Amino acid sequence: MKLHDYLEKYGTPTSLLARRTGISGSALHMIVNGSIPSLKSALRIEIATRGEVTCEDMIDPELIKLPLSKKKEKKRANRNYEQNKPQDITN
Q: What's the predicted TM-score (pTM) here?
């Protein structure tokens, strides 16, 4: 559940959740409006909402997919090729 939806569902003021989590009101306001929280803040929110708003709910999945450097990409492609290349059956 999105944090905004949680606050609306229970009629919880941002200031109350800020006190419960130890996160400043301005930082919490930014998170409610879509900013990505630190891991520490995300965990505090998840605990304060009793798991109704999870860390995953606050993080854009596209941000988790970090691009690989060209060198690492090439190594990964070679490793995949080596693992999947056809076996030599002539003896």
A: 0.67
